[in-house]
Amino acid sequence: MYGYESTVPAPEGMMSVEQVADGLTRLTEQKPATSYAQLRQYAHETDKLLDDIDRALARGLIQNDAAWGKFAREFSTKAAALSSRSGSIEPMHARLVVGSVAGYVEQLLIKRDDRKFRDYVTTVVKERDEYLDSIRPEGSTIDRAIASASDASDTEPITPEFVTWTDATGKFSVEAAFKSFATDHVTLVKRDGADAKVPIDRLSDESKEQLKEILRVKGVRKFEF
Predict the structure, then answer these.
(1) DSSP label at 13?
(2) Is the separation of the CB atoms in 54 and 112 below 8 Å?
(3) Which Pfam families match (predicted)?
(4) Does 152 score more than 50 pLDDT?
(5) Distance between CA atoms of 101 and 104, rounded to whole angstroms?
């Protein structure tokens, strides 16, 4: 399996390289493969953590030290536990493709301002989903079952989050909540209830990043701005 043969004999009383390789091969073969349902559950839990941190950042939770501290502690505990459990995924290829995502998500607490890293996590998640789709058993309904269970347990009400939006010049700003998104503009709701349709190219870089976080929370993964 490992494709290596040593030309040097092992010292007396020690196993040769070939014996060690054979032992590792047998050990690997003895471990049962993680089921598709379990892999999907790992993926679902990882996506929930990803949505949690995207939502927290979009809401500006980091601006409140107490609230962010509480969130960070809970998020770190959940992410570390999931990352640890993911280490038992078999075979190794599935562990690398599915299990490693939890580790990347765990690092988002520290690298929350690193846009390149966040985009890399998005790419890794996409590759994981493509892998899971490729191994889905014919007729499997586990995906719908997991999604339904998640919908049934998610009873937290969603309320508008008012944040500050600024234009590219930095001279104008408005406190408003996100309402909808189109290719070239975003519709906001001001505190008085009035809608404001803002061209995306007129937003400041900071507000554009804020919009991206909101869109990720809402499941929108493709946008060009």
Answers:
(1) T
(2) no
(3) SHD1
(4) no
(5) 5
In the chain, where are the structural domains located?
A: 36-152, 162-217
Q: Is 74 exposed, middle or buried (0-12, 13-18, 19+ CB in 10 A)?
A: exposed
Cα gap 110→81, rounded to integer Å: 17
Our measurement of the distance from residue 14's CA atom to the centroid of its chain's CA atoms, rounded to an integer in Å, reads 45
| Residues making up the chain, counted from first to last | 225
The token pair that represents 64 in the structure block: 């409140």
Of 154, 174, 180, nearest to 162 (Cα)? 174
Q: How far apart are CA 142 and CA 152, in angstroms?
A: 15
- pLDDT tens column, 157-200: 444 577 889 999 988 888 888 888 888 889 888 877 788 899 99
**Partner residues linked to 190 by β-bridges:** 176
Q: Give the three-class secondary structure for 141.
A: coil
- Which CATH number does the domain 162-217 belong to among 1.10.3210.10, 2.30.30.700, 2.40.40.20, 2.40.50.40? 2.30.30.700
Per-residue pLDDT tens digits for 60-94:
777 777 888 888 889 989 888 888 888 888 888 88
Q: Round to whole Å and give the CA distance between 75 and 146.
A: 21
